Amino acid sequence: MEVMKVADAINSRIKRLEELCKDIDEIGEEKANAIANYDVALAIAMAKLARGVISHIEVKGGENVNLPESIPATVAKDYAKGICREERFRLENATNKYKGLLTKIEALEASLNGKQSIFRHLSHEVR
Fold it and tell me: CA 55 to CA 64: how far, in whole Å?
């Protein structure tokens, strides 16, 4: 009876691993898209800053922070990052989802390995 319970637990974990492995492609693509979107937004912001097209940054609550008329090249990227904060947020979120999924897979694999060891031990006792 105990062997059957462990076998069921193994099958359950295998099914869950299969589901997570299907998700990894989708979440990986989401992460790749977020990286690409952030890189493009950053490049556009840098170009706009260099040309003086952007004069302020909108912060939370709709408040505008005025930028200096001349932005030194050494800090232009920092300003551009502030302008692209929403794309960066989406990038970080996608990265965390991807890493979280990998962690879940690793934990489930470890649990599966443990159940398989128990199964081997119990199946030897049954013989």
Answer: 10
